[in-house]
Structure prediction request, 449 residues.
Amino acid sequence: MDDILELVKNKDPQEREFHQAVMEVLISVKPVLDQNPVYRQAKILERLVEPERVILFRVPWMDDQGEPQVNRGFRIEMNSAIGPYKGGLRFHPSVTLGILKFLAFEQVFKNALTTLPMGGGKGGSDFDPKGKSDNEMMRFCHSFMCELYRHIGPNTDVPAGDIGVGAREIGFLFGMYKKLSNEFSGVLTGKGLNWGGSLIRPEATGYGSVYFSAEMLTTRNKTLKGTTCLVSGSGNVAQFTVEKLLDLGAKVVTLSDSSGYIFDESGIDREKLEYIKMLKNVRRGRIKEYIEKYTEAVYSPVDPAHDYNPLWDHKADCAFPSATQNEINGKDAQNLVDNGIIVVSEGANMPTTPEGIDIFINHGLLYGPGKAANAGGVSVSGLEMTQNSQRLNWTREEVDNRLKMIMKSIHQTCLEAAAQYGTPGNYMNGANIAGFVKVVDAMMDQGLV
Ligand code: NDP
Prediction:
């Protein structure tokens, strides 16, 4: 195992998040490899950590001042053993090859857990959507798709949204794909409802993360009703996490963006949530504006001098990190434990550092790792693909019921795999092992390709 990690580090020393994602999986799957030497003989790990294909391209676009701009575009086609590559596009200045490789690697196991036939991929750009006009967004998305379109297709690679890519961007991307390919197909998910999208897709990641937390709580005969919850982020995943928590009788007291966080002791109710949706999705404003309207809430800007995030230092029962990677470090995890948190459900991808994860697991918290807890989004993307192939639209209830069933099944799969390999109740091991076995068995069946 150490050899593989060394290999990965030596090949691409700067890809720290990718090393972190690989290490987490390697630790979990060690017992599986020990019991099945055939995997080692087939060099399955060496093959798994190498993307099947990496596409890197120039994205030139014109800003509103008539000034040419250039960004970098990426698509990582990580693994197609169990289906077409599937995974979101992220537009954020922090995007690098290493970030996207970590996300694509996680996506492979997550997609395997959903029970749907989807391989893993991820893509995006170092483009910063903040402060861009609708026209600039359109020009950028069109230029991005002018290259990407030749690499994707409904049976090849099906991108979706992620940070910085929501309904507006999917629309622009789809429009250019359709024009270039002369084909109306289910090549992207997260589409608008009147042109091939699925009901519940926008809600799916947040709702799914809450359903997963409810399943975890059931194992301790508890429910979300009456609990106090900390949620980070204020984008797609955070908003629908709050919505479902309200449906289930919980109180949410925090939300954030990359500039700071708000603490509202009286709880973010439905009216306040509607305001946040308008603020973030329509006005594209900042979370600090919340306190101008709800003056009893407190806003704290990010303090670079802090080695912890004060959002995680409030008394509560549940935590839903829903912003970005490594937003909970060891100190934050200890603060959560000290403040009485019983469940952590990761809406974001890899939001907890390895040190933080150890603290959660050693203190017996119900810890739902992102690749299980946030799999609801890609699951409903899979359901969108099915509806597109069948040229049918399912009702809201039908999609929501399927989402619930899938989250229940992922939860059960994690518990069973964790118990089978000697770590009962460890959802991280369970998720990694179950996803790994499904993918590598398919790779073994297909030979050395
Ligand atoms: P959005 O772009 O809708 O929202 C992202 C939110 O996170 C914003 O509030 C953003 O603040 C905040 N954020 C981003 N970067 C940072 C940072 N470095 N520090 C603090 N806050 C930050 O994205 P999503 O809600 O779609 O994605 C959130 C997370 O969920 C990501 O980890 C994503 O990979 C994961 N995810 C998303 C899925 C989906 O279906 N959308 C599916 C599965 C996982 P700001 O406005 O300041 O940038």
In short: The mean pLDDT is 97. The chain has two domains: 2-184, 204-368. The domain at 204-368 is CATH 3.40.50.720 (Rossmann fold).
